[in-house]
C-alpha cells in the first residue's frame, strides 16, 4: 500500500518535507504551483515552492486553466529534473476556481482529454504524469470519466478526494463513492484521499476499498508518525509507534531549525506557529494550551525555542 503526501499550500514546504522524509513516504509533493507564475519565472515559485533535494521522489502539482501555459509549465518542470508531475483538478478554493483552475476543470472533460494527450506526447516516457480530482463540481458528478481518461493515457495514478467542490472541507468525505470508484476496471493506480486522520480508520477504509495507495493531507500536519502507524497496522496488525512528549518536542525543535536555516529567524518564528497545536494536540491540557498560546505570540525565535524546551 503506497502512502503519498498531498501538496498543501503553506504546509508541505521544504522544511516540513525534510521532517516527513524521515518517515519514508512513497511520494510527497511540494506546495501547489501556478503554471502562470512558473512561466513568468516568479521568484517565490522558483526559490521557495520548488526548493527540493530529491526530484526523483518529490513531485510537483500544477494548477492553471490555459492549455499552452500548462504544457509549458509541465515541460519546464521536467527540464528542471522533476519526475513526478500532477495536474490539480481538485482544489476547491474560491480564488483558484474564479480563474477556471482546480475543481473548475472537472466539467471540461474535452479540454482535459486534449491537455493530457499533448502532455503525454511531449513529456518523456520517464516522467510520471498523474491527476488529482474531487467527486463533483456543480452539475458535474461523473468522476469515473477521469478514471477512463487516466487509463486511456496510461497515467501513473489518479487520486480521488471524496468531497465535491461545494463541500470545501466541510462535512465528511464520501468513502462509499471512493470505494465504488476504486473497483472500476483500470490499469493505473488508484489513490484515495479525504479525512485520513487516524491509522485505525484509514486501514479500515483501505480494507473496504480496492486502493493502490492513499494520499495523506491535513492528517499529516504535525503528525508525521501517522505514516509509521499506518504501515505497522497493515503489516503487523498493531500500532507500535506512539511518540511521547519529548519525541514530539524534539521534532518541533528540529522543524524550527530547518525553518530558520531556510527562511531566517523572523520567518521561522512566525511559520512554526501553525504547526504547534497540531504537533502537541495529543497531549492537550489546559496548562499546555495556555503555554502554547504564549509561545505562539512570542516573536523572538531564540526565546520561543527556550520556551518550547521548557515544556
TrEMBL record:
Name the SUPFAM superfamilies for this protein: FMN-linked oxidoreductases
The protein's UniProt keywords, in alphabetical order, are: Flavoprotein, FMN, NADP, Nucleotide-binding, Oxidoreductase, tRNA processing
Taxonomy, top ranks, is: Bacteria, Fusobacteriati, Fusobacteriota, Fusobacteriia, Fusobacteriales
Segments forming domain DUS-like FMN-binding: 5-296
EC number from the UniProt entry: 1.3.1.-
* A family per Pfam: Dus
- Cofactor list: FMN
What is the protein named?
Answer: tRNA-dihydrouridine synthase
The entry's FMN-binding residues are 7-9, 61, 132, 161, 217-218
What family name appears in the similarity comment? Answer: Belongs to the dus family.
A single GO molecular-function term is: flavin adenine dinucleotide binding
Q: Which residues form the active site?
A: 91 (proton donor)
Enzyme type, top EC level = oxidoreductase
Q: Which InterPro entries match?
A: Aldolase_TIM (IPR013785), DUS-like_FMN-bd (IPR035587), DUS_fam (IPR001269), tRNA_hU_synthase_CS (IPR018517)
CDD domains found in the cross-reference section? DUS_like_FMN
General function of this protein: Catalyzes the synthesis of 5,6-dihydrouridine (D), a modified base found in the D-loop of most tRNAs, via the reduction of the C5-C6 double bond in target uridines.
Amino acid at each position: 500500500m503506497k502512502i503519498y503526501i498531498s501538496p498543501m499550500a503553506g504546509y508541505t514546504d521544504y522544511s516540513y518535507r525534510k521532517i516527513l522524509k524521515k518517515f519514508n513516504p512513497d511520494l510527497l509533493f511540494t506546495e501547489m504551483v501556478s503554471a502562470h507564475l512558473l512561466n513568468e519565472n516568479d521568484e517565490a515559485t522558483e526559490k521557495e515552492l520548488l526548493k527540493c533535494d530529491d526530484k526523483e521522489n518529490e513531485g510537483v502539482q500544477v494548477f492553471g486553466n490555459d492549455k499552452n501555459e500548462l504544457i509549458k509549465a509541465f515541460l519546464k518542470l521536467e527540464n528542471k529534473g522533476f519526475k513526478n508531475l500532477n495536474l490539480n483538478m481538485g482544489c476547491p478554493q474560491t480564488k483558484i476556481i474564479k480563474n477556471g483552475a482546480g475543481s473548475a476543470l472537472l466539467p471540461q472533460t474535452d479540454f482535459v482529454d486534449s491537455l493530457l494527450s499533448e502532455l503525454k506526447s511531449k513529456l518523456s516516457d520517464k516522467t510520471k504524469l498523474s491527476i488529482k480530482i474531487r467527486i463533483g463540481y456543480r452539475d458535474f458528478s461523473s468522476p469515473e470519466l477521469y478514471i477512463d481518461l487516466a487509463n486511456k493515457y496510461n497515467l501513473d495514478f489518479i487520486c480521488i478526494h471524496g468531497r465535491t467542490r461545494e463541500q470545501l472541507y466541510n462535512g465528511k468525505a464520501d468513502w462509499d463513492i471512493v470505494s465504488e470508484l476504486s473497483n472500476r476496471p483500470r490499469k493505473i493506480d488508484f489513490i484515495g484521499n479525504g479525512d485520513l486522520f487516524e491509522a485505525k480508520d484509514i486501514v479500515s477504509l483501505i480494507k473496504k476499498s480496492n486502493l493502490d495507495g492513499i494520499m495523506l493531507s491535513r492528517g499529516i500536519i504535525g503528525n508525521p508518525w501517522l505514516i509509521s502507524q499506518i504501515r505497522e497496522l497493515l503489516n503487523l496488525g498493531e500500532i507500535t509507534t506512539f511518540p511521547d512528549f519529548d519525541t514530539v518536542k524534539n521534532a518541533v525543535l528540529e522543524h524550527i531549525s530547518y525553518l530558520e536555516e531556510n527562511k531566517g529567524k523572523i520567518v521561522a518564528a512566525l511559520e512554526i506557529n501553525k504547526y504547534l497545536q497540531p504537533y502537541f494536540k495529543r497531549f492537550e491540557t489546559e496548562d499546555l494550551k495556555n503555554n502554547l498560546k504564549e509561545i505562539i505570540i512570542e516573536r523572538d525565535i531564540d526565546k520561543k525555542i527556550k520556551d518550547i524546551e521548557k515544556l
